[in-house]
Amino acid sequence: MVRGKKGILRLIEAVIAILIVIGVLVFVSLGSQRQQSEDIGKLIPPLLDEIAKDNNMRRDILSYKFGSDSYTLTSEDKADNDKVVEDLKDFVGNKIEGRNLAYELRICSPLNLCHLEPYPSVNAEIYASERVISTDIGSNFEPRKVKIFLWRE
Fold it and tell me: What is the pLDDT of residue 1?
């Protein structure tokens, strides 16, 4: 009878030890995984929608000038372009503030690709989305494409 009680106690000790080891392993594995509670790719389209709906931002984006073979940008054009991009970056920065995200923004022709240059030296996924901004029906049709790149820092 004494042996039976010792055997049960050893069995209970072994089960408790196994449960402790499993608990520690689960805790360590959950702690080492990166916390990705949100899909940051889903943050970009609402930002682009908000930009497209704001008449002031639309007007600014449509005033963005491109250089070409027949037209060289003046220093005033470049300064105006820089102001448009900075205003858009401020808007995006305020919307993603506190999320430990980095971003870049480009304005280009809808016929061209908007490249991310220089490419960030991070080991993370980079999300991108774009939206074409165009004028009203009665105006000159010179659309612009706004592209936002977003990644974790």
Answer: 46
